[in-house]
Amino acid sequence: MDDYFRGTEDFIAVHIDDIVVFSENKEQHARHLEAMLSICEKWGLVLSPTKMKIAVQEIQFLDAVIENRRIKLQPHIIKKIISFDEEKLKEKAGMRSWLGILNYARSYIPKLDTLLGPLYSKTSEHGDKRLKSSDYEIIRKVKQAVQQLPDLELPPEGSYIIFETDGCMEGWGGVCK
């Protein structure tokens, strides 16, 4: 679906089957909606009236609530992280599940990878699976941090995007900051 909306990236975001149209004001939003609807009509895309929300100030998109140039983690994800049964963390599947949910909070907690490093070793085939008191301290710190997450703010107009990359013989990756 990305190809259908190529050239509209300044005001339309597409993820799988979700389309988000964003604008600075009502007049601009009307023009952006017309452009989006024209593309949908051209390509025969069917829009769901039950999913559609038009001209709202707040949206829930992927894992975030976006409102007034701020982005915050959806409350149900925070609840899942902090109420996760710690008994399940003693098993590899439970630890993997909790670490997977934490991926949603990664953008909000600086250096989360470093903090979680000792817990990731619990999910490897050859790592020590037993939780130590230091592991429980990490879990406590993370749950506390998730309850105090700052809202992310959209950068001011004209800001630079810093793209950090790293690579090795097996692959490469990048992060926008």
UniProtKB/TrEMBL annotation:
Limits of the Reverse transcriptase domain: 1-103
Superkingdom per UniProt: Eukaryota
Cross-referenced Pfam families: RVT_1
Protein name: Reverse transcriptase domain-containing protein
InterPro entries according to UniProt: DNA/RNA_pol_sf, Rev_trsase/Diguanyl_cyclase, RT_dom, Viral_Replic_Matur_Polypro
